[in-house]
């Protein structure tokens, strides 16, 4: 758990740092310097290898940072949505952990809600209010 905590702290700090405009500007500056030095190094293989290696390493590491940040954000959003469902009178608590269900089960729920939406649109066209909380058919 301590290693995961350390990784999480490092990943958060790195994601926060790399997401700043100054870091983007620094990356652009590095590319400009690399381009300007092209004629000096006669556009050699080594000159090209420097930028290719650097960008490959940075891209490789950034994939893990982005995935870590996305996982945290997704989990936080899911918890917030679960709390809204739990706290809303008339909401179905069985929907709290949908992200854990199999694809077929999710498709069944999606079809039920699409059916409710279709009925609500039809009722709205007919002049009815679509703000009711019709029960989810089981």
Shape: elongated
Radius of gyration: 25 Å
What class would the helix/strand composition place it in? Answer: mainly alpha
Order of helices and strands: HHHH
**Domain tally:** 2
Taking the sheet with the most strands, its summary is:
none
In short:
With 138 residues, the chain is mainly α. The chain is built from 4 helices and no strands.
Q: What are the SSEs and their pairings?
A:
Layout: H1 2-18, H2 21-37, H3 45-87, H4 103-125
Helix pairs in contact: 1-3
Looking at this protein, list some descriptive labels.
138 residues, mainly alpha, 0% strand
Walk me through what this model shows:
- With 138 residues, this protein is an all-alpha fold.
- It folds into 2 domains: 91 residues; 38 residues.
- It is 72% helix and 0% strand.
- It has 4 helices and no strands.
- The longest helix is centred in the middle third of the chain and has 43 residues.
- The radius of gyration is 25 Å and the shape is elongated.
- The mean pLDDT is 88.
